[in-house]
Specification:
By secondary structure, the chain is an alpha+beta fold. It has 11 helices and 20 strands. The strands form 3 sheets. Strands 5, 6, 12, 13, 14, 15, 16, 17 and 20 form a 9-stranded mixed β-sheet that branches. Strand 18 and strand 19 form a beta hairpin.
């Protein structure tokens, strides 16, 4: 039988959240092992590359700086100065309400910075390679978990065994570590799927991120750097699952015509500039965020539809909270008191955001004329009442409104 390798922290999951956590805890001086059964794809055109993008909001950038990641990411990031919401729920699908939320109203910085997920993985893997405190093992997954008072024992898919003071589960919505710990989840399914791809367009985006709401789900355009000399945006298009599957297989010319119409022609004719990817939309949250020597973060803890750039930013808030607790009392890493404090600090905020995004998504799916009119009226009202608008923007940034 192989020897047991000790470490401070074992991170199960090498997606963006897991890689960020590994860099953050490694930079803070903790001895970290990070594993993932699927090696990260770090090239845009490679098979399996993640064509989604992530808008890193202000608190997320703070964590990336702590982790030593922001300097390498900043040259590839596109600032998000304005969040624009469009209601296109009328009979002809045109934009009937457009409301802009400007970062300058609440901050001297942009709302956030948009980055392609494949690029995030590339720079994060490079950062881990430069950290002597981190052992990244792509192609290796977790198989078993035994949480004890003094340590956790984790069996890996290559037959090796790890003892860790803390296990961080960043291993996705079907988290094997969460399952092994017996922590349940509450899941809501919407019958939707999301398409993700990149486009070019003749009208510059001017650092404006736009969500166009229509029956079925939002169509979101998020600014990217220019591509082949043209303004470019990342798109996430949520709709009924069958409709999304049909668009996934559609002829490019037909697809471009349909997505241009769905965008209300706000940026002119859209040209597909990448392959299309697709994934199912759910809401999910764990019944508890911790177990014996175990903390759940990211999609192991919560999953939300891609509305308002909340998903990964919630995940990085998980990591920031854990890191703060670990640094305040490093001798108590992974003890019950620390994990209880983590659960208390994050659970309420997670529930609030999961519930809020669930309501927004259900409103975006509204198909009756009355419900669509109510959605348009609600958007107009929220924008025109200045204190409400400011509060919503502060919450969207990941901070509570000032009292």
């Amino acid at each position: 039988m192989r020897d047991i390798t000790p470490c401070d922290i074992l991170i199960s999951g090498g997606g963006i959240a897991g890689l960020t956590a590994a860099a953050a805890f490694g930079a803070a001086g903790f001895n970290v092992i990070c594993v993932d059964p699927t090696p990260p794809v770090t090239e845009r055109e490679a098979t399996g590359s993640d064509m989604r993008t992530t808008a890193m909001l202000q608190p997320a950038r703070d964590l990336l700086e702590q982790a030593g990641l922001w300097e390498a990411l900043a040259p590839h990031a596109t600032a998000l100065d304005v969040m624009q919401i469009v209601d296109a729920g009328g009979t002809d699908g045109s934009a009937r309400e457009i409301r802009a939320f400007r970062a300058s109203d609440v901050s001297g910085l942009p709302f956030g910075w948009n980055l392609p997920n494949w690029r995030l993985r590339r720079e994060m893997v490079a950062r881990l390679e430069a950290l002597d405190s981190v052992d990244f093992r792509p192609g290796v997954g977790t198989r078993s978990l035994l949480g004890r008072t003094a340590e956790a024992r984790v069996g890996l898919s290559d037959g090796s065994r790890i003892s860790a003071r803390l296990v961080i589960a960043a291993d996705g919505r079907a988290s094997p570590m969460r399952t092994a710990a017996g922590i349940g989840v509450t899941t809501r399914r919407y019958g939707q799927k999301a398409l993700a791809f990149a486009v070019t367009h003749p009208i510059p985006h001017q650092n404006v991120s736009t969500e166009v709401h229509q029956t079925g789900g939002p169509f979101t355009l998020v600014p990217l750097p220019d591509h082949d000399g043209m303004p470019s945006s990342a798109v996430v298009w949520m709709d009924d699952g069958a409709a999304s599957m049909a668009r996934m297989q559609a002829d490019v010319t037909d697809f471009e015509a349909e997505m241009t119409a769905r965008s209300c022609h706000l940026l002119g004719p859209l040209t597909l500039a990448s392959r299309r990817t697709i994934w199912p939309i759910i809401s999910q949250h764990a019944e508890r965020l911790s177990g014996a020597r175990l903390a759940l973060i990211a999609e192991a803890a919560h999953v939300v539809p891609p509305i308002g750039a909340q998903g990964l930013n919630m995940s990085l808030a998980d990591t920031a909270t854990l890191l703060d607790l670990a640094q305040k009392r490093p001798e108590g890493l992974g003890v019950a008191a620390m994990l209880d404090a983590y659960h208390r600090a994050r659970f309420g905020d997670i529930r609030m955001r999961v519930t809020g995004i669930d309501l927004l998504n259900r409103a975006s799916q509204a198909s009756s004329p009355l419900a669509r009119d109510a959605r348009a009226f609600g958007l107009k009202t929220l924008h025109e009442v200045a204190p409400v608008r400011k509060t919503l923007m502060q919450l969207g940034l990941g901070t509570r409104a000032a009292s």
